[in-house]
Prior knowledge:
Number of strands: 0
Helix content: over 70%
Number of helices: 7
CATH superfamily: Globins
Number of domains: 1
CATH architecture: Orthogonal Bundle
Distance between the termini: 75 Å
CATH class: Mainly Alpha
Order of helices and strands: HHHHHHH
Structural class: mainly alpha
Strand content: under 5%
Largest sheet: none
Amino acid sequence: MYVLPPLLKGYLCLVQTSKMKTDITNTADIALLLKHFYDKVLKDDCIGYIFTDIAKMNLETHMPILCSFWESILFGTAQYKGNPIIKHIELDKKEPLTSLHFDRWKRLFFETIDELFEGEKASLAKEKATAMEFLIKMKIDASRKPGFIQ
Length: 150
């Protein structure tokens, strides 16, 4: 019977117990990302209340919408049919959304991506989140001015 040297045993144990990160490749990966992300968001002392008390977001009904949104963004499936800019403008009218809120959202989103994934689509998710942040903040600022037309 062949016995592994102690150094090699430790290496194999490390390989077997550590999970290599992969890229975001399908809807299940998006759902995993969003579940872990919103677990953090809802508990966050800076932005959690916006989702629970102001938007009163029900994750059970909202998660399929979020998944279709990110699936459309990352895979070009055109599943999502909503308008996130209008939703954020309406939310801003209930509770002014600040750069601090956006920064925290983005930090938690990037942190969650980095914990779970790496690769082209993971990087693309970060790029798209940054672009959306810019666009949504710009539209919210415009909506606060007189004469804004949606």
